[in-house]
Amino acid sequence: MELETEALLQEARESIEAARTYRRELQQRLKGLHLARQQVKNSATLTRDVLQQHFNDLKGTLRKLLDERLVSLLQEVDSIEQESIKPLDECQKLIEHGVGTADELLREGESAINGVAGEDCDKLSNFTKKALHIQLDSLPEVPSLVDVPCLSAQLDDSLLTIVKSQIFNHGTVASRPPVQIEELIEKPGGILVRWCKVDDDFIPQDYRLQFRKSTASPFEDVYVGSETEFIVLHIDPNVDYQFRVCARGDGRQEWSPWSVSQTGLSTLVPHEWMPGFEGYSLSSRRNIALRNDSESGGVLYSKAPTYYCGQTLTFRIETVGQPDKKDSIGVCVEQHNTCDSLQRDKAVCVSTNGAVFVNGKEMTNQLPPFTSGSSVTFDMEAVNLGPSNNNEGGNFKLRVTISSNNREVVFDWVLDQCCGSLYFGCSFFHPGWKVLVF
Fold this sequence. Notes:
This protein is of the alpha+beta class and 438 residues long. The chain has helices spanning 2-116, 121-134, 158-168; strands spanning 179-187, 190-197, 204-212, 220-225, 229-232, 241-249, 262-264, 280-282, 288-291, 300-301, 307-308, 312-319, 328-332, 347-350, 355-358, 361-366, 375-385, 396-404, 407-415, 421-427, 434-437. Helix 1 (2-116) packs antiparallel against helix 2.
């Protein structure tokens, strides 16, 4: 009886635990549903604000343009009116002057005729001479109505049809952006952002990636191009950054709606070159090293062993200088300040001509020579730990993959000690070489 009771109790406990788990899962789904509802409502509110602001701005601009056009046409009417009225006013003055002269001549003539009765012949003679001098048969030319301007306004109603058609087709509302951020991968001092197209009918031409450090800061462009991933560098560790992406359709000028913004951070310490080395000048963040004109040479190492197995270490050649057979970039177990190259024991490296060296020995396989913009990546993973039964004498093996310009070399690097982290380094004999590490 006790065993049966204990079994029932155990079954009840399991049911209770299953119910708790079920409730937690439902609560998580409710939380996800709440976030989804908030996204719909918040994006709808934002879209309304954007539409209202855009059309208010559009109405203001159209009103301003129409007012400016009206003023221009009214000024044109005023100008034509003034130019056309001026000769008519001059003609009117000439005729009015002639009418005045005729009135005066009439008065003098009537007075002269009346004076004949009083035998005043001199007045009559003077009047006759004056009348002959005035040339009463000469009249000023008055333009006919067909020869003077008759102003009118020609207003094409088709403009309303064109504007109406454009307005009715202006703007669209999208329920989903055509591209979305797929994943955010933390890198030392950076975040790799990958995105993908989610609209099968959308044909992208370019992508545009933006980020911001906090919600109080504005988004800023960090990449525009045709690739679907980009490493955002200069990221402060353990700080949240927001990312969003949009796209431009093939043959289009306008950008699509923004994707749902994603928040990411990097907990990895940024890769830095060791400061204070006379032969190299470093950037402010110490992730770019430039071989300067100093005669001092040797290997510039990282500030600390910040490269771990399972990560990808990338060197990007920003500018190139004159190559030398001892030039090298790569990783090593420990720093040797007395060596002038990484082509030595306990190091793997690539020279500027593409030769690969493992523990100081050159491999048969080779990578392309370095050019400006070349990227060289190192990927490593532990193959086995503990004593080895092979004849190489090592007890720690790393599978190394070095890639450059779509070519790669894969080999096993056997070491006599376990290495959880590695230094990276570079050495260039001639000045002008600049390399970025991330």
